[in-house]
Design goal:
Layout lengths: L4 E3 L6 H11 L3 E5 L9 E2 L13 E2 L3 E6 L13 E7 L10 H7 E2 L2 E10 L5 E6 L4 E3 L2 E3 L1 H8 L5 E11 L3 E10 L7 H11 L8 E4 L13 H9 L2
Parallel strand pairs: 1-2, 13-14
Antiparallel strand pairs: 2-3, 3-4, 5-6, 6-8, 7-8, 8-9, 10-11, 12-13
Length: 233
């Protein structure tokens, strides 16, 4: 009897979306928004073909665009920029915090802190949080992309990728992995598998198997705590 499923609150891994569709025959529609956008801003169009990984298009009354650090529009298809939103649902500013407001608002546009890309049909895809992006040897590495790949491995139940300080490269890529209970794989074997799946500058040089990942009450992984835990090792 299920006709529709909706996901929001955090990025849904494409692998989970695919498994859900195969099991239940229903496409999950994703939405996107923040407290500052009251709270919905984009949503997958139910009448359109499924776009796995997409948060959809701006809802009625809302505009979206990608910008660089200077608020210049990034217009090329599939180019990555920070998602900015304008509309009747966007806040006027943070209460009694004019400096914080000025950092994120410009001519009614609100910059979300999320990196995204847009396809030729106007569907948006979240790439990662700006603050989570890893700069490894001058190359931008997006943790979510690596996490999506790792989740396709049968031995991986859940994963979080972070950047840790490195004296020669600036940052190094580390993956914290929860293994499937019935699967066995070594750290070195999983590293080698990821090396074969992605570009040389992207794959994690270190895998840490953990029993659990720190999360908020709404299920978002606290990567800041993973960074702190790694620095204490």
């Amino acid at each position: 009897n299920m006709r529709c499923a909706i996901s929001g609150g955090a990025a849904l891994p494409v692998e989970i979306l695919t498994q859900f569709r195969e099991r239940f025959g229903v496409q999950i529609l994703e939405g996107y928004g923040l407290s500052e956008t009251s709270p919905l801003a984009l949503f997958s169009a139910p009448e359109s073909d499924p776009r796995p990984g997409s948060i959809g298009v701006p809802i009625w009354g809302v505009e979206a665009r990608l910008v660089d650090d200077s608020w210049h529009t990034i217009a090329g298809p599939d180019e990555v920029g920070e998602l900015a939103i304008r509309g009747h649902n966007v806040m006027k500013g943070y209460f009694n915090r004019p400096e914080a407001t000025a950092e994120v608002m410009c001519d009614g546009w609100f910059r979300t802190g999320d990196l995204a890309r847009v396809d030729t049909d106007g569907n948006y895809y979240i790439v990662d949080r700006v603050k989570d992006m890893i700069v490894r040897g001058g190359f931008n590495v997006y943790p979510r992309e690596i996490e999506e790949v790792l989740l396709t491995h049968p031995a991986v139940s859940l994963v979080a990728v972070v950047g840790v300080p490195d004296t020669s490269l600036g940052e190094e890529v580390v993956a914290f992995v929860i293994r499937e209970p019935s699967e066995e794989i070594s750290e070195s074997d999983l590293v080698e598998w990821t090396r074969e799946q992605m570009a040389a500058y992207k794959y994690p040089r270190r895998i840490e198997f953990v029993p659990s990942l720190p999360m908020t009450a709404t299920g978002k992984i606290l990567k800041r705590e993973l960074n702190q835990a790694f620095s204490m090792v």
